[in-house]
Design goal:
Chain lengths: 489, 125
């Protein structure tokens, strides 16, 4: 039974998505409970899966019994199981949060709305477990297609953002597929474990290097690494408030996980092209993204856009961590990724709650929160502490391990980038808090809407999760160092 | 230099791929009309699919179905089936993408009454 856990985790949201139109046809009110139950069951299965993997080692699941490399294989190792637990729990909280703040003009379209959310979650699951480069492409597209439709679901201005996201996302997917084609032409296999044995000695081949570059640009468009981020701020700020937490916490992070799989499991950590280590280049990409993203966040006025740029800079920090080429840095990067999933979800929950209760869209509007919304402000302070990196939140320990790894690698550029980005993060949160705590502008007496329980619950859960991640950072990083490290690191 | 040209001419499929890919990219970047952008995007996708499917071609080979189970398998006699399978899935993904994108464009046309990107952006200001 426990051998089938990866497939079970995928099938729970996927089958629920397929049954959703039938259930929704009977009664539209059942859609949301059904989606929540499906993702709750998936979270329980992920936790069981995590315990099984920790107890008895990785599970390799060969679909319909065809042994890899001929058949399609799913790899459920330490890294995949830990990320799966995080993502399924965050998806569950986002889904609970999504109910009351979902677009009100959906009507009958509420059925496809929840179907798409479940398809997004199942696509994300597929990317995490996929042990095959082409499988990653298929699931990237499953999650991305649901993402495009969900961004545009409310209509209006979001349609144009969704269209841009679609054009750039599809172009990225095409480039990724092209890179996969290059790898296939060079080796004759698509299985990650099999490629991992053949690619490292082929790194002198122009086809393999070209394929790697295409894959990086393709996945870079999906994870919105700095110069390729054009679609992200518009898409996240125009998407419905219920959807942006899901997109921000799942989609870009999963593309990063796919890249980590390719970089470390296929290409190998110590690979050099013409005496230039590949990892150094990535780490410099990450450093650029971390600093420029935080700087752009500082210049924003719209709350959602500010948080979207903050997410871009954090993608950069994660990329720095995993690209240092040392176990401490890698574990720190993955730990920071877990934190970032939670923080991004939390920030967009708060932006959604501020919009729902007070109609606050820009940071100037936030002045109406003063003295009225203790729990939004309190949660925002916890998020800010974690984003900036104050102990005892998870963000502090993530950055701590990344900087430790960078010092171990004697990479002072990475240290500088993380610290500059931290200072800039502090700056834009000061900007937010300055708006909240200064005297309210005359005539801005907004009568707040009472927050429904679901919003309070989700914001509380995320804040608690950030503190817990900080308090238990030591065992989590220990588990990552023991079980989630790629071969050869 | 000349031998490079010679090598290229032995791989006409790669030349066609490059032309289709760049053509699609050019249309995607330059045309303000949203449907034409989609046509460019579809050309890019199709060029990649074309590249993949031509990887599995062998001259004189037949469909990859074993003619006899007793004789030893001759690899040269059959086309490589894997790129074809991969391509089939990629085509399905492409069709799904086209469906979503056309739905978005239709919704935009209903709302703004135009397909011109500049016009829509002006209306959004």
């Amino acid at each position: 039974m426990s051998d089938h856990l990866p497939a079970l985790i995928f099938l729970l949201p996927f089958l629920a998505a397929i049954c959703m139109p039938m259930v929704g046809f009977k009664n539209r009110e059942w859609c949301r409970p059904m989606a929540i139950v499906a993702v709750l069951a998936m979270s329980v299965a992920s936790i069981v899966n995590f315990i099984v993997v920790m107890d008895s080692g990785e599970i390799r699941y060969a679909f319909s019994g065809w042994a890899p490399p001929i058949g399609i294989e799913w790899v459920d190792d330490g890294l995949a199981s830990i990320i799966m637990v995080t993502l399924s729990l965050v998806a569950l909280i986002s889904l609970i949060n999504a109910g009351p703040i979902s677009p009100s003009n959906l009507g009958q379209r509420i059925v496809p709305y929840y179907t798409l959310i479940l398809l997004l979650v199942s696509g994300v699951t597929g990317i995490i477990f996929a042990g095959d480069l082409f499988n990653i492409f298929v699931f990237l597209e499953v999650s991305a297609l649901s993402g495009y439709a969900l961004v545009g679901v409310a209509g209006g201005k979001a349609l144009m953002s969704a269209f841009r996201y679609l054009i750039l996302g599809t172009f990225g997917a095409s480039l990724y597929l092209l890179g996969v084609g290059y790898f296939y032409a060079a080796t004759g296999t698509l299985n990650i474990a099999d490629l991992g044995q053949r690619i490292p000695e082929l790194m002198t081949s122009k086809a393999v290097v070209g394929g790697l570059i295409f894959m990086f640009i393709g996945l870079g468009l999906k994870m919105a690494i700095m110069p390729l981020h054009g679609w992200l701020p518009d898409a996240y700020s125009d998407a419905p408030d219920a959807i942006s937490p899901l997109l921000a916490s799942l989609v870009t992070k999963v593309a990063l996980i796919a890249w980590v799989r390719i970089m470390f499991w296929v290409v190998g950590a110590g690979t050099e092209v013409e005496h230039v280590p590949v990892l150094i280049l990535l780490e410099e990409f990450g450093a650029g993204a971390a600093v420029v993203g935080a700087f752009l966040a500082l210049t924003q006025h719209d709350l959602n856009r500010m948080f979207a740029y903050a997410g871009l800079s954090h993608i950069g920090i994660i990329l720095i961590g995993v690209s240092l080429g040392y176990p401490t840095g890698f574990a720190g990067g993955v730990f920071y990724l877990i934190n970032d999933v939670v923080m991004q979800a939390g920030l967009f929950f708060l932006a959604g709650a501020a919009m729902y209760q007070y109609g606050a869209r820009t940071i100037e509007d936030l002045s109406c929160l003063r003295g009225q919304a203790p729990w939004i402000t309190g949660a925002l302070i916890i998020m800010a502490m974690s984003m900036i990196g104050f102990p005892p939140t998870g963000g502090f320990f993530g950055k701590w391990y990344i900087i430790l790894g960078a010092i171990e690698a004697q990479n002072y550029l990475a240290v500088a980038a993380v610290i500059i980005s931290t200072v800039l993060t502090l700056a834009y949160f000061i900007k937010i808090f300055e708006c909240i705590f200064r005297e309210p502008r005359p005539g801005s007496g907004v009568i707040p809407v009472e927050a429904p329980l679901s919003i309070k619950l989700s914001v509380g859960a995320v804040s608690a999760a950030i503190i817990l991640l900080g308090l238990f950072s030591d065992p989590i990083v220990g588990i990552l160092l023991d079980t989630a490290l790629p071969p050869g690191l | 230099m000349l031998e490079h040209f010679d090598a290229w001419l032995h791989r006409p499929n790669f030349i066609v791929f490059v032309i289709l890919f760049l053509w699609g990219l050019y249309i995607m970047v330059t045309h303000p009309n949203l449907v034409k952008k989609l046509i460019g995007m579809y050309l890019v996708q199709t060029s990649v699919i074309f590249f993949l499917v031509t990887l599995g071609v062998k001259s004189g080979a037949t469909v990859p179905i074993l003619l006899s189970t007793t004789e030893p398998i001759q690899v040269e006699a059959y086309a490589n089936p894997l790129p074809q399978v991969v391509t089939l899935t990629a085509i399905v993904v492409g069709v799904a993408t086209l469906g979503v994108s056309l739905a978005l464009v239709t919704a935009m046309y209903r709302k703004y009454g135009t397909l011109d990107e500049d016009e829509i952006l002006k209306r959004l200001e």
